[in-house]
Write a structure and sequence with these properties.
heterodimer; A: 112 residues; mainly beta; seven-stranded mixed beta sheet; 0% helix; B: five-stranded antiparallel beta sheet; globular
Chain lengths: 112, 114
């Protein structure tokens, strides 16, 4: 089955630690995205990538980093510089920007 | 940048009645307007979308209307069913030097009352 897979579903992190969230897609999509979702707010764009080895900052990139070494993979690292990292993180992909985006099931990150 | 406002934030309707969710956008260059449904603990799923060259689009019980002049678009769900209960997000896509980014509204929690 084609789709987009995020792992893990739940993640706990101690303050001061970096953590990496996985996102893999087998839809052969060029574009991939990371969004953050907080209660009562819409989805806010962290980073996006239109092609392998290229990515751009979204609206709330501070404290996050990404890589796009393979077309199917777009991992997100939440660094210790992110002041309020507890949130629900969603990865998405699309054939190209401006077309239907398919979302993963999300990773809920909690800083303890 | 683009700003998308969505109303209402919560909506309760009797099963079988219609539900309407409205969004406004700020950037007249936006030309793609999808609607997503998110069930608890899951990622959003596209339910319908519309492009700026079309005023209305319908898919069974779901329809979307777009008014480019007023810069607003709406989701209409008819004959609502319990499985329609979820959070719905609108979004708008705008271009900036060839890069298009989806900007989302803040969501509407729809509850269908049996």
């Amino acid at each position: 089955d084609g789709g987009i897979t995020q792992s893990p579903k739940y993640l706990f992190r101690k303050e001061g630690q970096n953590v990496t969230l996985s996102c893999e897609q087998n839809l052969n999509h060029d574009a991939m995205y990371w969004y953050r979702q907080d209660p009562g707010q819409g989805l806010r764009l962290i980073y996006y990538s239109q092609i392998v080895n290229d990515f751009q900052k979204g609206d709330i990139a501070e404290g996050y980093s990404v890589s796009r070494e393979k077309k199917e993979s777009f991992p997100l690292t939440v660094t210790s510089a992110q002041k309020n990292p507890t949130a629900f993180y969603l990865c998405a992909s699309s054939r190209q920007q401006g077309f239907e985006a398919f979302f993963g099931q999300g990773t809920r990150l909690t800083v303890v | 940048g683009e700003n998308v406002e969505q109303h209402p934030s919560t909506l309760s309707v009797q099963e079988g009645d219609s539900a309407v969710i409205k969004c406004t956008y700020s950037d007249s260059a936006s030309n793609y307007f999808p609607w997503y449904k998110q069930e608890l603990g899951k990622g959003p799923q596209l339910i319908i979308d519309i492009r700026s060259n079309v005023g209305e689009k319908k898919d069974q019980r779901i329809a979307v209307t777009l008014n480019k002049t007023a810069k607003h678009f709406s989701l209409h769900i008819t004959e609502t069913q319990p499985e329609d209960s979820a959070v719905y997000f609108c979004a708008a896509s705008w271009s900036n030097f060839g890069n298009e980014k989806l900007t989302f509204g803040t969501g509407t929690r729809l509850t269908i009352i049996p």
